[in-house]
Specification:
This protein has about 325 residues and is α/β, with parallel strands linked by helices. It is built from eleven helices and twelve strands. The chain is about 40% helix and about 15% strand.
Length: about 325
């Protein structure tokens, strides 16, 4: 990306204003080293993006890592660029090896660790990464509200939570006058619709909770680079290639190709545009390991699908 664009297509998310693509930071310190990560972040911001997603656990699954590597890379970038107030930073609590679960003590300790790694004194959007049903919603919501009142967190959100617990959480916040979840990060894409659509999406719609879907490109399958008879090597190729063995996966690829050809667009852009058009969705979440992968992702802000195209994709993915 060489062109610099003025911010466009900003979406409200609580008191925040976010771009139409959320950039996933799971690759920072994993498949992208610091230099590569900085290049991607620079290009994302130059392309009009402002909504960057990470988690304290990224990337503890890599041998030799302990969690926090992504936040550290992002913090170094924020410090070197001096642009903290220009971007919306989302991170998560509850899955770091040293800070598992959502007890009050865990959250209080984990948030300070995240702030240190991010080299900032506030987090724009703080997610409970996984629900912890051993903890009453009142305990973690009261703690999160304390963080908001202290200025450490601006807005709170949930990821990987059931419809029942989301409803319970929202009701508790409303009853007690506490900070409420303004966003939800569900697993949702063209080949994984039942992970969000239905009861969970209904709760989000009823309460005005915005969705920021992860696995928006199904581990790369919805970029179109995985095709029958081709081999693609990447850290996520197994998860993506399994969709080639399903009738739905093949139908979705065919429909994506049809729409992409009509718009002279990348397959990935079309897949994200379908997601962005779904009820409650504020911004799909996708990661880029290299700058070359970014243009197709950022283009979602400029692609509007017709009703007929949305229907074609929805029917192919049913």
């Amino acid at each position: 990306m060489t062109a610099t664009h003025t911010p466009r297509n900003r979406r409200p998310l609580g008191s925040l204003s976010v771009s139409s693509l959320s950039l996933g930071g799971n690759v920072f310190g994993w498949t992208a080293d610091e230099a590569e990560s900085f290049a991607v972040l620079d290009a994302y911001v130059a392309g009009g993006g402002n909504f960057i997603d990470t988690a304290d656990v990224y990337s503890a699954w890599v041998p030799g890592n302990k969690g926090g590597e992504s936040e550290t890379v992002l913090g170094n970038w924020l410090s070197s660029r001096g642009n903290r107030s220009d971007v919306v930073i989302a991170t998560k609590v509850g899955a770091h090896p040293d800070y598992k679960g959502l007890s009050a003590a865990t959250i209080k300790s984990a948030v300070d660790e995240s702030l240190t790694r991010l080299r900032t004194d506030y987090i724009d959007l703080y997610y409970t990464h996984y629900d912890d049903e051993s903890v009453e919603v009142g305990e973690f919501l009261t703690t999160l509200d304390d963080l908001v009142r202290a200025g450490k967190v601006r807005e709170i959100a949930a990821s990987n939570i059931s419809a029942t617990r989301l409803e319970e959480s929202l009701a508790f916040s409303a009853r007690e006058g506490l900070a409420r979840y303004v966003a939800l990060q569900p697993h949702y894409n063209l080949v994984s619709r039942d992970t969000y659509e239905g009861e969970l999406a209904d709760v989000a719609a009823r309460h005005g909770v915005a969705a920021v879907p992860y696995y928006a490109l199904a581990s790369g399958f919805l970029t179109g680079k995985y095709r029958p008879g081709t081999a693609t090597e990447s850290a996520r190729s197994g998860a993506a290639a399994r969709h080639l063995t399903t009738d739905r996966g093949l139908r979705v690829l065919q429909a994506l190709d049809t729409v992409a050809t009509a718009h002279e667009a990348e397959v990935a852009t079309v897949a994200l545009a379908w997601l962005a058009a779904q009820p409650t969705v504020a911004a799909p979440l996708a990661s880029a390991r290299t700058v070359a992968q970014l243009p197709a992702l950022l283009a979602v802000g400029d692609l509007t699908l017709t009703e007929a195209e949305l229907t074609l994709l929805s029917e192919a993915s049913a």
